Amino acid sequence: MPQRRVAVTGGIGAGKSALARELGRAGCTVLDADESARRAVAPGTTAHANLRTLVPTCFDGDQLDRTALAAAMFGDAGLRKQVEDVIHPWVRADLAAQAQQADAEVVVVDIPLLAESRSRHAATAEFDYVVSVWAPTALRRERLRERGLTDADIAARMLAQASDDSRQAVSDVVVPNAGTLAQLQAHAVSLLEAFPTLLRRRT
After folding, report:
1. How many other C-beta atoms are found inside a 10 Å radius of the C-beta of residue 41?
2. How, if at all, do strands 106-110 and 29-32 pair?
3. Exposure of 25 by Cβ count < 10 A (0-12 exposed, 13-18 middle, 19+ buried)?
4. For every one of its 203 residues, what pLDDT tens digit does the chain have, with 9 covering 90 and above?
5. In the prediction, which pLDDT does 1 show?
6. CA distances to 3, 55, 67, 124, 127 from 101, in Å
7. Is the separation of the CB atoms in 54 and 86 below 8 Å?
8. Which domains does the chain have, with CATH numbers?
């Protein structure tokens, strides 16, 4: 059976990483786009060199200050687009390489900025199935406050991301995550059981 790649996305605080973890515990190989993004900006990469030129004030010696970069990006949509144009191609190539090396029938990719970086056509070309995790905005804000983010940080990060409608437009299924962890685990089990049928529909 050829390897199938499933993207799991969602807005900040919605619980996409929690769903990806549950799919991993159930036996799927899980790749993390955020981890790839961290490798992308490590010293020695082309992305690192390009960012040194683009945002020199966000570096402490040879190390990128990710907090400073995030603050600069969230306040400047043009800069955010330039930074994403540097990092996203590297991340896509890295995830594709990891997937190729994985000895698994289903590879799940935890990817927060899917709708921001890909059209529906591009997403379906790259992934066999796209899952979007949804939670009410008020609940997402509550979760993010528990992580230590200020209301201003939360507002800026949400504003910088795609809308729920945009995420759902690139997705094959939307998983609600407004309840308990047990309920999310049940959704993960249901997805795994349905994957063989769902994936066949896209071929």
Report:
1. 22
2. parallel
3. exposed
4. 578 899 999 999 999 999 999 999 988 899 999 999 999 999 999 999 999 999 999 999 999 999 899 888 877 889 989 999 999 999 999 999 999 998 888 899 999 989 988 889 989 899 999 999 999 999 999 999 999 999 998 998 898 899 999 999 999 999 999 999 999 999 998 888 887 666 655 55
5. 58
6. 11, 33, 32, 21, 16
7. yes
8. 1-28+108-203 (3.40.50.300), 41-103 (no CATH)
The CA distance from 82 to 92, in Å, is 16
d(CA 145, CA 143): 5
Please give the C-alpha separations between residue 184 and each of 56, 65, 66, 141, 145, in angstroms, as whole numbers. Answer: 42, 34, 30, 19, 21
Question: What is the per-residue pLDDT for 140?
Answer: 97
Cβ count near 29 (within 10 Å): 19
Here the tokens at position 19 are 């769903």
* Axis-axis angle for helices 151-160, 66-74 (nearest 10): 70
Cα–Cα distance, 183 to 44 (Å, whole number): 43
Report residue 86: phi and psi, to 5°: -80, -45
Residue 110, classed as helix, strand or coil, is strand
